[in-house]
Amino acid sequence: MNEYGQAAADILTALGGRDNIRAATHCATRLRLVLNDESKVDQAALDALPITKGTFSNAGQFQIVLGTGTVNRVYEEFVQQSGVQEVSKQEAGALGAEAGNPVQRLVKLLSDIFVPIIPAIVAGGLLMGLNNLLVAPDLFFKGKSLIEAYPQYADLAAIINMFANAPFVFLPILIGFSATRIFGGNPYLGAALAMIMVHPDLLNAYGYGAAKLEGTVPTWNLLGLSIEKVGYQGTVLPVLVLSWILANLEKFFRRIVPAALDLILTPLLSLFITGILIFAFVGPLTRLLGDGITAGLTWLYDTAGPLGAGLFGLFYAPIVITGMHHSFIAIETQLLADIVRTGGSFIFPIAAMSNMAQGGATFAAAMTTRDQKLKGVASAAGVSAVLGITEPAMFGVNLKLRYPFYAAMLGAGLASAFITFFGTKAVALGAAGIPGIISIKADTIVPYIIGMVISFGVAFVGTLLLARTRFNPDLAAPVEVAAPAETTLVATTPATVAETAPVSQVVTPSAAAPVVETVAAPATAADPRLTGWVMPLEGRVLPLGEVPDPVFGSGMMGPGFAIEPASGEVRAPLGGVVETVFPTGHAVGLKTDSGLEILIHVGIDTVNLNGQGFTPLVKQGERVSAGQPLLRADLNAIRPQVPSLVTPVILTNLAEGQRVEVSGGQVTLV
Fold it and tell me: Which residues of the chain have pLDDT under 70?
């Protein structure tokens, strides 16, 4: 049995045997498995395997990180030994969703519906926050607002306020389109249904309460049944339920209506029946239920106060690990849509406190750990966390060491109690961290900032203290690492680079691919394998820790950096041989003539597109030169379908202890 066969056998045993494997697939870097029972996994045995770089469970899939070039060979052996069902990425995702319990399936359903509409809600919410800065009294001037001090800008504030309100007034249309698509119906019918719910002939939902008290709610008389003519602006639950009814009616009629009449009768009957249900029965009932949920959450927050918020903040990070936090999107959307009554969202500020705590703990971990590789990951992941992206910090550092995670939980809990004492709420969604300041109610911005300092500080100091206790694994196994050499890679304008260019050579710009100039520091310490480096993509260079993916962002695949692409042409950074071109075209692996192994993975979760938007330009085994195009990606087509286009560039075979640092667009190999 070869090494890949042995690795597959060891993995299969650690997973609980072939009877515990329901389905299997793989992407460019990891095995993606649907298990019957994840509790049977021997995690310690998996972690002990030299071939395994990391594992995690997400959306019903147990994923084992093996690395490019290795994963496909282990997968072939794994499938042969286990006799497991091979499935596509989409089928694995569907099976994984089915494998979850009802709560997990509900969380995934809500996430699938609301994640695509987040940009619209964030944009509207941030504009609302900007408007609040303009009209809030006592923020910039005592006794008056900025607009009152400069009335010539009053119309600008009015325009911003209109822009801000639009996504919430027409929120049912956004949800109707997305939800009907997820439920298996025609999303355009879902949008049409939602347009009925916010039609201007109806009494605006925001005026329903006052009209009810005055007895002036308009009605229809339908066959003796009095039906209120009330809209559903800013509501969530009614359109969710009605989208499900619409999608199922559409599927029902498609089964029974003759094909010749399907195009006419199916949408007509589906929309008409669901439309009647909106106003006659389902709409009023779900409006009442939605109002009750909102009132209940607001009451719970007001009643439990700082103690309840402190407990929520304490356990927010463990909730993130389970994925349950995705369900909060729907709740926050409802809280913000009904902001007149709720005052805003209390969840967002607490999430921000948790993120700041994870960042503080990660920075402290970078100071206390003796693992040089982890130090490099932690410094970048800490920055990412305080800016609102915590996966690299949480999964790549804090959970590995554990004691920073405990300190972060404490910091988040104390800070959440503090900000709740001052009634801190958000009027918008956004990046839950330092950038989230603009999302906070104007009169509670100062407590929010103090809360961030408390959260970061408690987590930072707590991590330093716990590092001196038995919770720190480094105390049991001290590690000595020699100081590594440095090679600095400075991004320059596009240029063509000779593969044999000496390290100290300054490259003259021309009109080809963007390059990285190699500068020795000192000259004798430079890594000759990087001579003639060409940047694989045009765009902004980022630390690896800012990649919104736990595998890449935590450094499981190895050190590297990332690029936020400005164009979709991926080029060879050095001359060499193409080792891997993934069938879906989203990733390519090279082995350079100097022996360096490089993985370029365009975007996050792009494997799920099954090749859509990608055009490979080379084949496995083909020789390439520095700057030669490897693949093209249609960024405009891909962007709406994936979480991020940020592209990790991983150097998979660097020496132990070497790491890559990014500062000010400059990439340094240390």
Answer: 1, 28, 58-59, 68-69, 85-105, 107, 322-324, 326-327, 371-373, 376-377, 470-530, 656-657, 664-665
Angle at 305 between CA 300 and CA 309, to 5 degrees: 85
DSSP character at residue 73: H
Question: If DSSP codes are grouped into helix, strand and coil, which group holds residue 296?
Answer: helix
pLDDT of amino acid 95: 53
Q: Are 231 and 168 in contact (CB under 8 A)?
A: no
Q: Which residues of 82-93 are buried (b: 16+ CB within 10 A; e: fewer)?
A: bebeebebeebb
Contact 533, 589 (CB under 8 A): no
CA-to-CA separations, 292 to 111, 237, 330, in angstroms, rounded: 22, 11, 15
What is residue 247's predicted lDDT score, i.e. its pLDDT?
A: 94
The two tokens of residue 658 are 């070497």
Cβ density class 261-297: b for 16+ within 10 Å, e for less: eeeeebbeebbeebbebbbeebbbebbeebbebbeeb
Q: Looking at residue 485, what is its pLDDT?
A: 44
CATH code that applies to domain 3-100: 3.30.1360.60
Q: CA-CA distance, 356 to 412, in Å (whole number)?
A: 8
Tens of pLDDT, residues 621-669: 999 999 999 999 999 889 888 888 999 999 887 776 677 877 766 777 7
Q: With beta carbons less than 8 A apart as the criterion, state whether 290 and 258 touch.
A: no
Q: Which helix (H) or strand (E) holds 196?
A: helix 187-197
Output phi, psi for 54, to 5 deg: 165, 165
CATH architecture of 487-669: Distorted Sandwich (2.70)
Closest by Cα among 552, 568, 621, 466 to 30 = 552
Tell me the C-alpha distance between 364 and 401, whole Å.
12
Catalytic, 27? Answer yes
Query: Domain ranges in the chain?
Result: 3-100, 114-288, 309-475, 487-669
Q: What is the pLDDT of residues 308-363, one digit of tens each?
A: 889 999 989 888 776 667 667 778 877 887 777 788 889 999 999 999 999 999 99
Kindly give, in sequence order, each residue whose CB lies less than 8 Å from that of residue 81, ignoring residues fewer than 6 positions away: 5, 8, 9, 12, 18
Reduce the DSSP state of residue 629 to 3 states and report it: strand
The per-residue b/e assignment along 396-422, b for 16 or more CB within 10 angstroms, e otherwise, is: bbbbbbebbbbbbbbbbbbbbbbbbee
Alpha carbon distances (Å) from 39 to 57, 400, 402, 479: 11, 19, 20, 33
**In angstroms, how far is the first alpha carbon of the chain from the final one?**
38
Which residue in the list 8, 11, 14, 27 is annotated as catalytic?
Answer: 27
In order, the DSSP letters of 112-180 are HHHGGGHHHHHHHHHHHHHHHHHH-TTSSBTTB-HHHHSGGGHHHHHHHHHHHHHHHHTHHHHHHHHHH
3-state secondary structure of 665: coil
Residue 580 burial (CB count, 10 A) = 18
Look at residues 612, 558, 561 and name the one whose alpha carbon lies nearest to residue 585: 612
Identify the helix (H) or strand (E) that includes residue 25.
strand 21-26
Q: Where are the alpha helices (DSSP H) in 315-402?
A: 316-322, 328-337, 339-342, 347-368, 372-386, 391-393, 399-401
CB atoms within 10 A of CB 315: 14
Helix (H) or strand (E) holding 562: strand 560-565
Tell me what pLDDT residue 497 has. 33
Distances (CA, A) of 363 to 93, 250, 277, 356, 378: 35, 53, 55, 11, 6
Whether residue 539 contacts residue 563, with contact meaning beta carbons closer than 8 Å, is answered with yes
- Distances from the Cα of 281 to the Cα of 241, 269, 451, 596, angstroms: 12, 18, 45, 66
What is the spatial distance between Cα 13 and Cα 10, in angstroms, rounded to a whole number? 5
